[in-house]
Amino acid sequence: MNCLKKILRWIPALFIFGCSWYLSSQETIEQMPTFWNADKLVHCICFAGLAFWVAFAVGTKLPAQWRIALPMIIVSVWGITDEIHQSFTPGRESSVFDWCADTVGAIVGSLVFFYFCKGIEWYKARKDAQ
Length: 130
Known about the structure:
This protein is mainly α. It is built from five helices and no strands. The longest helix has 34 residues, at 96-129. The chain is elongated, with a radius of gyration of 17 Å. The protein starts with a helix and ends with a helix.
């Protein structure tokens, strides 16, 4: 049963990986914001969400530095893969700046999950102390 839980924890991240791959396969993406560098903001937000769910899948049993670093590494490498994949899609191009936005998002998402868990731990400890 424990193994099944570990597998199920990956479902949100795998769903986002799949959506990312699908969107990278499209020649154009409709309804993108039109302000300057909007695509970088979209990359950052989407990859932050992905990193959050990868961190969830990785779990909280690892040492703190690995709970932050492992999701960042996985998502940043996915960003490179995504940019390479995009370079083969007609009408699309890859960009090192998109990958940088992906990596910034990965850092943000990993840290948000880490501190979210810390906040829950703090709340539980405070509640138990009362």
